[in-house]
Design a protein that fits this description.
The chain is an alpha/beta fold. Helices cover about 30% and strands about 30% of the residues.
Length: about 325
């Protein structure tokens, strides 16, 4: 099969929303080429191998590469993607140079592109994410291994917003907790929740591909019996209360359901939000406080923010 490589030069801030647009357009995978990766300090005591070629990275901004099958609708699909990306300006998202180019690659080149960007990475005290094709031996008895296949189109699970979410789950989850994962994507946060002790997870996403991918990754990690993945808009039609709600999505989306999150949490429950850019931090904090949340804990990785908020015990 022939594939078309869509290359978009943009900013760190725009990575998540543009990736989502590409997934919804049917992209079979998104590669992120960030020059910061070339200078980032990395722990290598786990035996990870980082073979990064500076020639693969842009001199400024971030390069997103998505892969679309070459067919008679390709031109229309590319045009729709361009329009959707330009629409992000309405949310005050900096698109940078926003240069888009299209080129053709064969399937073998596409597969190779995935593997050179993805190695086992320890992302928290206990959790390591590894691709399905890599052999990895745990270095401690309590280490948690999550296997993901980035070919399912939702990235490697090692973006700062995901790392912040998993680190928060690791600190907040108690054995037997009930969890809701809003905007589940690859299902990595749902899987991490179960492996960290959650009894059951409801994983919601508007995107059918995300729902299917979550189910596949849950089965891959042998936790499919504890994760219910289905298409749903945020917390609509959810009437049960749970111990933890986690949402790794845009700040603008968090601001649409913070009151629903408060209502769907048990007293003393925890709301973990991520995917927040610096410029939106105070906006989200104010909304969470207005909704009734207390004890806000703000964490940061690179330019990304996560906020852990508690529902008061007496509410």
């Amino acid at each position: 099969m022939k594939w078309s490589e869509l290359s978009i030069q943009t900013t760190n801030e725009a990575i998540e929303p543009i990736s989502n647009i590409l997934h919804e357009a049917g992209a079979s995978g998104v590669v992120i080429e960030d020059p910061n990766d070339l200078i980032k300090e990395r722990d290598t005591f786990l035996g990870e191998i980082y073979e990064l070629n500076p020639d693969d990275y842009p001199e400024e901004g971030v390069l997103l590469k998505a892969y679309l099958p070459v067919n008679s609708f390709l031109g229309e699909t590319v045009e729709e993607i361009k329009q959707a990306i330009n629409g992000l300006l309405l949310y005050d998202i900096d698109l940078g140079s926003n240069q888009i180019t299209v080129s053709e690659v064969n399937e073998e080149e596409w597969a190779t592109a995935w593997k050179k960007y993805y190695k086992p990475v320890k992302i928290s005290e206990r959790v390591t994410i590894t691709p399905t094709w890599e052999e990895y031996t745990p270095v401690s008895s309590d280490e948690i291994i999550i296997e993901l296949d980035p070919g399912m189109a939702f990235g490697t699970g090692t973006h700062p917003t995901t790392v912040l979410s998993i680190q928060a789950l690791e600190r907040q989850l108690k054995s037997g907790d009930q969890v809701i994962d809003v905007g589940c994507g690859s299902g990595v946060l749902s899987i991490a929740s179960v492996l960290l002790g959650a009894d059951r997870v409801q994983a919601f996403d508007l995107d059918e591909i995300a729902v299917r991918t979550t189910k596949l990754n849950a089965k891959l990690n042998k936790v499919e019996q504890q994760i219910e993945s289905k298409q749903n808009n945020l917390l609509d039609n959810v009437d049960k209360q749970v111990d933890v709600i986690v949402a790794n999505i845009l700040a603008e989306i968090i601001l649409r359901f913070e009151k629903d999150a408060f209502d769907r949490l048990k007293p003393g429950g925890t709301f973990i939000t991520s995917g927040i850019i610096q410029a939106k931090k105070q906006l989200v904090k104010d909304a969470l406080i207005s909704a009734g949340f207390v004890d806000l804990e703000v964490n940061q990785m690179e330019d990304w923010i996560s906020i852990i908020a508690k529902k008061p015990v007496g509410k």
